[in-house]
Input
Amino acid sequence: MPSPEDALQVSRTAYEEHARTCRQCHFDMAPCAVSKHLLRAYNNARRAQARSNTAVH
Ligand SMILES: [Zn+2]
Output
């Protein structure tokens, strides 16, 4: 199972790669459906990591 850090890296890379290469995002100057999906996954991963960082026991 990937750690929150790994999940964050993976989702961020996927999002950045999409933003760089997606024709539709560039053409419309607005995120396409895939981009929104990837951004949401990235935000979720970021939240998950923040939670794991602040989890003090
Ligand atoms: Zn796109």
